[in-house]
Every structure is written in structure tokens, then in C-alpha cells.
Model the fold of this input.
Amino acid sequence: MDLDALRYGNFHQLDEAITDWQNMAKKLKTLATDADKNLKGKADKADWAGLNATVTREFIDKTAGEFADAHTQADTVANILSDTRGELVGYRDQVNEAIAGGQKKNLTVLDTGQGTFVVTRTTRPDWASDPSGRSDAVDQQEVDALRDEIQRILTKATESDSTAAKALRLIVDQAKYGFSDASYENRDAAAKAIADADAMAKILAKNPHDVTNTELASLNATLAKYKNDPLFAEEFAEQVGPKKLLTFYAGIADPYQGGYDPARGEQAKQLQKNLGITIGRATLSDSDKMQSWESQMTKLGPDQLGIDDASNPTGYAVMSNLMRFGDYDDQFLNDYGDKLLAYDKQVNGEGISLWVNNANQGDLNYWGYKNDRGRDPVTGFLEALGHNPGASEQFFARPDVTDYTVNRDVVNENSEVNEHLKYLTQERVWASDVTLEGKDGYVAGRDSLGHALEAATTGYSFDASAEDIKAGGDHRTPATAAVMEEVAYLYGGEDGPKLLHGQPELADSLGKMAGAYIDDIDYNLSGVGEHQLDKGSFPGAYQGRANFTNGGAINFLSVLGQDENSHRAVTAAQHLYTLSALDKYPPTTDANIGHAHDALMAGAQARGILDNSRVEQASTDYGEASTEANKSLGRSSDWIKLGVGTTVGVGIGAIPLPGTTAAAVVIAPIAADTVGEAINTFIGQQIDKGVDDAEQDPSERSQMTSSEFYTKGINELGSAYESYVDDNPKARGIADGQNWDQDINNAYYGTGSAENEYRGRAPYKD
Done:
């Protein structure tokens, strides 16, 4: 900064700009509040159908979000400008005071341009006649001191001005269209984020083997501190660069480099997570520099990095382990995934895996390491999709649908299934990547595929918490439903039993996906074949609901019932949904009583399909009436204990699902707007029985014959039925007159000519 620019700068225009921005921020705050409470609030409560329920509501949500971001950006710009203006005025006053002080000492300061200046001694005509004989009133030390003081002030003023400009440019470039959500109270906060990013980038510029544990601890602490800071993330990513990011992490993470140090291993573990989150945040920027960064990273994918660490891994091998954590740009993940799978198809086969082999000791994953060493980059990428629902839904989108808001044809052939989904479920040869201490034969990649599909179909991260789900509500859309239709087609088809039993790691995810769509499944079971589906008792919770067809729903449920984990998840969701329907339709009117009957019938059908399939598969696997078969049925009957801890919000419930590969919940649709007696009974019924039973080994807890298993199932349905008609003579009279008990028995047991129909797919045999 030039000296005269600071001394004589006119801040009038800057003052006007600050006032304008402050006024704009106030107006935008009013608009943002109005958009959220009135525009979005009314849209959320509106009972819309058709395009209004999807396109219009989505547009309103995005518009309300843009108003909020616009206010945030305007407020941040005003804060930075105002803070910078105050600092510059302060520096102007300081430099003028310093110059005035120098003048009293006969020193003159001159601006020489381009940020330079000189300090000279003042020559006075009367010095020659001074009685003291002095010819010079100033010594060199005073000249140097004034020069240094002015330079210090100018340096700070320059830093204030330049960092403010950089922060403002970064904020504006964050969003190519719309506004950034970057929020800073002043210039100092924005500048510090950028400066800290630069400091951390210098650590990554080093040879990773020269980086101390103390430096790694500092790096981890700073990355964790700024995990949600957009300016820090972008500045850090740009300064480090794609290739250095990969080579640095590989060098730090390689456990075989220089002997294993537990403290360093823990730092490497945290670094994997912190880098993943930071880089993910950086990809959300729309700036040209980050777009170029993402393109470079994708190009590095198939090539080895040319390093001695981690078996000289490819870019895919390293980046896929970092992206296990964080919220990434949807388009970046899709571009990356498209190229990764295209390359994987070239090298995947029945022989030795390119990724998982004895020559590759590139163990780059520290999370769940025993069962997933991180050598297969497809696993890490799918885990990333599992945390990024929007990207996952796009990655597995149906290829035959261009407009999800209109009625979609049922998926009935492979050409209507997404190519990525077909490859990963039907064609790819998966390799187990476990350590000697891991679960023999376990394939982490298939578990991650399940996570990705959960995100694609539910709209939630696969490991979303119950509280997040309760607050977020139903995230299903026509697009997520279309992915669900593909899944049901594949796993409910003729090869479904073979797929499920050959991919046991997917079972819990498939059960959770079916549970999330149990209302649509019940709707498909409610008619006579494909006719007279009951929209009255099973209204669509969202536009463009999933269509499985009657036979497709039966087949899908029958396959899911074959596995203990998928049976547990979908059965729990079915029970909760049926109870919520009883709460929605209290026995106060004839219409309500009719709807309650239909809900019980569909629930009994679904439960009968699942339970029959479970019995048949246990008998096939272990031998009819064998001890192991009875143990299997005993484990399957324990799903009822999942009611403890169930969290219910508006239109959605979250049921805890212990015993899976991750702490997770089953997302279940709720028919009622408010929690009633039926649901409260389910949630609270196990509390009085104690928790001790739940802590025992479930494999040894109980044995149950098929007869006992069916008896328990019909008793649970009977209990729900009884709770509805109990203490209500009108409902009891209608139920008795219409033989509800016989209807429920027939629906559950599938007696008579319906028996084979309800059985669905036959049990799987090796």
C-alpha cells in the first residue's frame, strides 16, 4: 500500500458501500425470515399433489434457502468491509501521528511510489548561525526508528486491505449461481481462517517422513477446528494441490514405513477423517480454481503416484479412502465414480484382483481396519456415496426415466436398471480385504454398496442419527423411489435369493430400504392383483411413490424374509407402520374403522410373507426342526425388542437396529401425524421387562420351533387388533360382524389357494 494512499485516502465511498450492505443485510434478513416462516412454512403444511408436491415444493425449499444464504453473504460482506474500514482508519491515524512526531524532530517522510517511502533529515537555514554550533539536529537512529514505525503501520494496513480483498473474492467465488453460506463476524476471522489454511498447507509441503507427531497433532487440531469453514477448506485445498494431498496422506498413513508407532497411527487415523471432511467442504465451492482442482484429482485416479510409500498406490486408492468422510459436491462424486468404475471394469475379473493382492500393502484405511484394509478404492467411494444422498441418488438413477414427476413404468427388465447398479450387484468380482484378525470372507465393499443404496433411496446418510431423522422428516422423492424400484426388481427377481445369499453384507441395508418404503409396499399389497389398490387407506406420503406391483412386492418381501438381518429390519418397520395407521384411524367413524381393517390386512400379509420365508429358509439351511433352525427363528423373533428407543417425528420414525456393521436405525414411514396409544405401547412395552435379556448373546438366548414362531407372529397381530377394538363397542361389533379375526388369520397364514402366492420366492439352496 502506498503511503499517500493511506494518509489521504477518501473513505467516503467505502462508508457508503458499508451502509448499503448493512441496509441490504437487514432487508434480506426480513425476506429470509418471511421466506422460511411463510413461504416454506405454508408449503410444508400444504396438502399438495401432482407437480406441486414435488417440483413446486422443492423450488420453494431452495428459494427459501437462497434467501437465507443471501442474507448470510450480505451480512458477512458488510462485516468484513466495516471491520476493514475501521482498521484502515486506525492505521491512517497512526501513520499521521508518527509523521507529525517526526516533523517535531526535523524529519520528513516522502512517498516514493509503489509502496516505498523515504525518511530524510530537515535542513534549516539558521543552523549555520546556531550559537551551539550544531549543523545537524537529528541522528541516524531517529531516522531509522521513524522509518521502521511507518513501515510496520503500512505492513499492517496492507495486510488488512489485501486479506479483506482475498476473503471477499473467495466468498463471492464460492457460489457461481446464488449465494455463499460462508459467515464471518469480521475481517480478522476470515483472514485468520485463510492464514491458518496456508500454515497447515506448509506442513503438507514437507516430506511426510520429516513431519513430527507434534506437527501432525497440530494439523489435526486445526483441520478439526475449521471443518465447516468454507474459506479455510478452499484455501487449504488449493495451496496443497491434488497430488501433494495424495502423496502426503499415503506417506503418513503407510503403517509399514519406519516401524509402527501407535501414537503416529492414531494421528494418521484422525488425519484420514479430518482431511476427508476438509476436502469435501472445499469441493462445495463453485470457484474456477476448485473446478480445476477436482478435474486434476479425477485425472490422477488410475495412475500410480510414483512414491515408495503404501506400495506406490494409485490416485483412486488414496482419494477413495479420504472421501469416506465428509460432504462432497454431488457432481464431483459422480464424475469421479463414473471414471473409477469405467477403469475398474477394465481390470476386474476372476483372476488376481488389481486392488487386493499380496503385492499391495497399501493399507490406507484406519476405520474398521480389521475388516477393511482400504485397498479397494470402490469400497471407499461407495462409502462416500453413503454419506452423500444426493450424489448417490444420481449415481444409481434409473436410465429409462427423464421426468420422475409423472407416472413411471414398472421396472421389468435389466435394460431399465442403472448400469452402475447392475455392475456392482451382478457383474463385479468382489474380493475380501480383511486382516488376519478380521471376519473370514467378509467383503466390506458390498456393505458399503448397501450404505450407498440406503442413501440413494432414503435421502439420508446411511448412519444418520435418530434425532436427525426426526427433525428432517421424510426425504423420499420420485427420484429416490425410482432407485428403490430398481433394487426391488433385482432382489425380488428370480435371481434375488442367489444375490442376497451371495451378498450377505447387504442384507441389513436391504431390510432398511424396504422398511423405508413399507407404506408403498403395503399399498401394492392392498388390491386384487394390480387392481383396486387402496389409495384411501394407504395415501401416498409423497408424489411419485414407488410402484413394485403386487407380485413384485410379494417376491421382494419373500426374499428379504430369508435373511435374519433383513427380516428383522423390515418386520420392525412394518409393525410400526401398522400401529401408526391404527393411531391415524381411531374407531370414531365407519370410514376410519374400514381403513384400520385394511391396514391390519396389509400388515398381516406382509408379515406372513416375511415369516413364512424365514421359516422355510431356516429349515433349508439347517434342516427342519433342527436345533440350529430353531435358534435362527429365535433370533428372528427378537426384532420386537427394537421398539425400545424408537424415535417418532411427523411422518417418520427411527427404529434402532443393533447388531449391524454400523450403529444405525431403520427409517420407517408413519401414517399418523401424532403419536398415539398404539405406537406408544410399542415403544414402551419392553422397558418393564429389563434390559438384561438384550445384552445376552442372541445366538444362544432362545430356540423356537416354526409353530412357536408363527404363533408369536399371529399373537402380535392379534394384540394390535385387540388394542384397536378394545373398549369400543362399535368397532368390536363391526369387526365381529365382518370376521376380522378370520381375515387376519387368512392374510397371515396365506391359507387355501393363496398359500403359494404369499410364499413368493422359494428358499435359496446352495
